[in-house]
Amino acid sequence: MKLPSSTNLGEEDVTASNLGHRNLVEAELVASNAWLIRVRWMAGIGVLFSTWIVQNILNLQAPFAILYSIGASILLYNLIFYIVEQRLTRSTAPSPSFARQAMWQVGLDWLAMTLLIHYSGGIESPAIFYFIFHIIIASIFFAPRIAFGFALLACGLVTGISLLEYLGILPHEAIHGYLEQPLYQNNLYLVGVLIFFSSSGLIAAYLASTIIERLRQREEEVVTLSERLQRATKRLQAVNESARIVGSTLDLSQVLNRLVQTTAEAMGVQACSIRLIDKTGQRLEPVAIYGLSQEYLNKGPVDAIINPLAREVLSGKTVNIPDAPSSPLIQYPEEAQKEGIRSMLSAPLIGKSGPLGILRSYALEPNRFIGDDEQFLAAIAAQGSIAIDNALAYQAIEELDSAKSQFVRIVTHELRSPVSVALSLLRTMQGGYAGEVSGQQQELISRALRRLEFLHKLIDDLLDLAAGKTEVKPDEEFELIELGEVLHQVVRRYEVSAQEKGIKIDLHCTTGAEGMHVKATREGLDRTLNNLLSNAVKYTLPGGLVSVTLTEINSEAQVIIEDTGIGIPEESLGHLFEEFYRAPNAKALENEGTGLGLTIVKDTLIRFGGRITVTSKLNEGSTFTLFLPLETLHGNKPGR
Amino acid sequence: MSHKRILLIDDDPDLRLAIRLPLESAGYAVVEARNVSEARAAVKEVRPDLIILDVMMDTTTAGFQFALDLHSPDAASEFRVHRQTPIIMLTAIHSTTPLRFSPDEDYLPVQAFIEKPVEPEALLAKVHELLTDRES
Known about the structure:
A: alpha+beta; 4 domains; six-stranded antiparallel β-sheet; B: five-stranded parallel β-sheet
């Protein structure tokens, strides 16, 4: 059940002050106190100054000693209030201290005012209407009823003094010379002044309290609005933050832990947790916890099927429990009580394939979750569900990929050995070591050997490919290698075969290329360059040119391997680095080829932090450009 | 014909056959052993002039261990008479396997490596070279 919004306000005020934040209404009280103290300095000085004028300039007679002491007393107690107020402000004391001080201030002011009136002529006193100011001040500080009480008290005090003086019970103190003859015993004057004074006081109290009341209402509205705005902003930030968290990483436990913390902070509650259904589908296991004790977590198993609250939430509902220890839905009410948990709000985590678990907020106050809390938690839960789905999917892909590579490794190792032995046997036979081999037999053996050799190469390539994926070597295993040196070796390797085929190989290193170092493995680098160069020679027709250039661009080493070969059809370019893909013209020229070479090249370069690009024109040639981050000899990247 | 004796140690009978035939046709006497323990006995019995040893048999390092034992500099070694017997190691270790060796590494007491699948001509050339070296 939702509470009326005014009650919300009250609760939030309490929460806010509990948290030590001084809200606007309190701030106003503090400011008013300070203002009153400032005004009183002037009032005290005013009393002293006017007494002095009456005495020295007007040369009238009055109980000056008493009037001076009233002025001095006002200044004295104001000094005390000033000191107390300074201390209260510094100590961030709660509002009751300020309210108490306000009461004292008004009380003493009224005493001083009453004495001032009495000693300056009672009903004849020119200061009598100053009481109106005090009534207005009281209306500012106190609720209308109290303000009216003060107004009536003022009337009572003035009437009391006047009557006591009229009856002669209290001596009449007056400023002699102010009036030609005393009026305090003039019936008509007495009644007239009292009626006008009282009505003025009550009207002033009414006007002041009405205006103040209206102002206060507005102010409270502003306070409420600004608090709501703050809350909304905070939640918006939290939803934003959760979306960012969900997108930032695929590490599930990290995502969920940050999600519970963000949720608890945004809702301003004690704790938050995520429980996920385990693999058996029976239990809800805590996977991310914020603000709960280990003892509470160890309370016992939470069954996804039996636990009534879990069942309801997992069916897709957001469930609000305003008083946890007494709710029939709670499986462990005693433990909740012990933990101090009074209210709970639970939202379902629903993935693509059904319920995943529960996101739950816990608060120490009963009835804590109200208003848009449910929608907020549901929104966070929706984000969480996406994160869990993504992470699970990613995890599954990773496992699958690793299993695939592992499988390829095992299978190829097993395959390699028999193929290798078969090759050895056939070569022995071909060599005539097992007796004479006829021409046709020789031919058959050669064909079998060719097939087996291809198979052997394929297995080796598969091993390379699988190794690149399963044995991701940590960075430390890479060494600093001079790229030019490896490139020279590989180029030299192909010089003879290229020459035999009538192809020219050009190696060109730009200035500075000599000392270029990259972080890699020698073997991986060799394999990569070897692969690209062997392709260039293989797919370039006699009379062609293969040119290799080593250069540096933007702190990257660049190796450009350009040929005037058969080129790559445009529709094949996009598939070139796919496993087992071979361009149709390459297949036509060279029947044998595994289609794994470029995949291995690409994978290897990625491991070294590099990349490869290709451009080509059919029948004109291809250019492969590979990029590798440059390293200085100290292992740092050169300055950018 | 000198009838030099060669001890061939490999757990795969087909590979042993593929290696034995060229060796025999070149006039060498070949004795086979299926594993390291058979090889240990055969070495003492046959006193081979050359040993061809598969790198991976019972365990990935069994072949290496045997080669180390044979060429041990220890004066009390049971194989001290074979300290000078050349060893050709058959390797099938793929380049991506963690264990990688090349003949120039000092601590390996092996004179040559032959990659599987075996190329008979290359094998014979290597054997001939090692045995001639020894005589000279």
